[in-house]
Amino acid sequence: MLGGGGDRTIVIVGAGIAGLTTALALARHGISSTIFERAETLNEVGAGLQIPPNALRVLTRLGLTERLRPYAVSAISVTLRAGKSGRKLAAVPVGSGLDAPYFSMHRADLQSVLLDAVRVESLIHLESDRELVALTASSRGVDAEFVSANGERAHSAADLVVAADGVNSRVASLNVLSPATFAGAIAWRARVTGKVALDFNARSGGITAWLGPARHAVAYPIRFGNETNLVLVEKAGAEHAAGGETVPRGFSNWDAVLRRLIDEAGAFTPWPLLTAPAERPWVMADRRTVLIGDAAHAILPYAAQGAAMAIEDGFVLARTIYDDPDINAALGLFEAQRRERVARVAARARFHRFVYHLPPPLSLGRDLVMAAMPPSRLQKSLAWLYDWDLADSA
Ligand SMILES: Cc1cc2nc3c(=O)[nH]c(=O)nc-3n(C[C@H](O)[C@H](O)[C@H](O)COP(=O)(O)OP(=O)(O)OC[C@H]3O[C@@H](n4cnc5c(N)ncnc54)[C@H](O)[C@@H]3O)c2cc1C
């Protein structure tokens, strides 16, 4: 068996982007794992997703980028526009060389490519309809208890538990960590189909964001350019987080191009934005359980990097487990390698929120600065983010 991970029993909780990537990355090192997922069927979930070059570089190493390509559209830049007039403020280059383009696609398409790869991998065992309900320290490491929809219970003894169970992580709550909190904004998500989507995708040439006080909108092609994904983000009070509203407010006098997309969109799904506390530990007190992806550090979606961080996490964790036979040491190394980068990305997302939502007259200053900045400088300012490679974390 390769490396140090081969004889350990690794349990991954959650078959989202973080869990599936981790299992595939472990298998690449010859390490087996079992994924337990609470959903009975793993199919179409969510809306669109931008996959930035830093994440695609990882997916390329896992042999997946060419499998994603038939579903994706490559973006060259993100076009920033004034919300009301639609005036172009800047085009921010987002590619990172030939090996790593910037994709936009449907989340379900990414998920299904990951799942297909998992299902043919003999080192990965996937059990659905298994909700983690308890974790107990055992002589071996950790005993994980799962329950199925019909109430049936199952146990798994693990040397290592990887909690990839999302922003409302059960593993975090079982370890009595403070829960994720409402971040004061709601993202409304919808898909546009038909001629309006085809026309918009053909003209936009990538990703478009409209900026305005306390709100912004993002639109980009998915399903190989046949549909448009639309996300409208608005500041909102805690009373709105519980739901109840069915349409986004406040975009009625915005750019006609955006309004057309909104008018043509199917139903909007409200998505209250949550963040995990920055001080949340990732390695639990048992030194056998580690949080990754949104369970560890759900960051705001303003930089479109949450799934990308989950993908990077999975790849780095697999390598540290492979490199170090001592689980405790490997988990410590993982956290040390990832914390600074994730914190920097989270800060960048907060910066985007600040800049995107500036009210006048501050927004006028923002617009002037953006217009004066050459695209090459904008690209250089994002090199730390998009040019990341696994070697950078060593
Ligand atoms: C509006 C919006 C737009 C976004 N856009 C982007 C973008 O463009 N690009 C980007 O990179 N990121 C984006 N993100 C962030 C991205 O969606 C998340 O960061 C990413 O999905 C996190 O993946 P994950 O695997 O950690 O968690 P999840 O996707 O939440 O997966 C968790 C899995 O664990 C399972 N699970 C949960 N509890 C249990 C349990 N007790 N037992 C067993 N299984 C369990 C769940 O069923 C699920 O399958 C966006 C987020 C939002 C809200």
TrEMBL record:
<dbReference type="Pfam" id="PF01494">
    <property type="entry name" value="FAD_binding_3"/>
</dbReference>
<feature type="domain" description="FAD-binding">
    <location>
        <begin position="9"/>
        <end position="342"/>
    </location>
</feature>
<dbReference type="GO" id="GO:0004497">
    <property type="term" value="F:monooxygenase activity"/>
</dbReference>
<dbReference type="InterPro" id="IPR002938">
    <property type="entry name" value="FAD-bd"/>
</dbReference>
<protein>
    <submittedName>
        <fullName>Salicylate hydroxylase protein</fullName>
    </submittedName>
</protein>
<keyword id="KW-0503">Monooxygenase</keyword>
<keyword id="KW-0285">Flavoprotein</keyword>
<keyword id="KW-0560">Oxidoreductase</keyword>
<dbReference type="InterPro" id="IPR036188">
    <property type="entry name" value="FAD/NAD-bd_sf"/>
</dbReference>
<keyword id="KW-0274">FAD</keyword>
<dbReference type="GO" id="GO:0071949">
    <property type="term" value="F:FAD binding"/>
</dbReference>
<dbReference type="InterPro" id="IPR050493">
    <property type="entry name" value="FAD-dep_Monooxygenase_BioMet"/>
</dbReference>
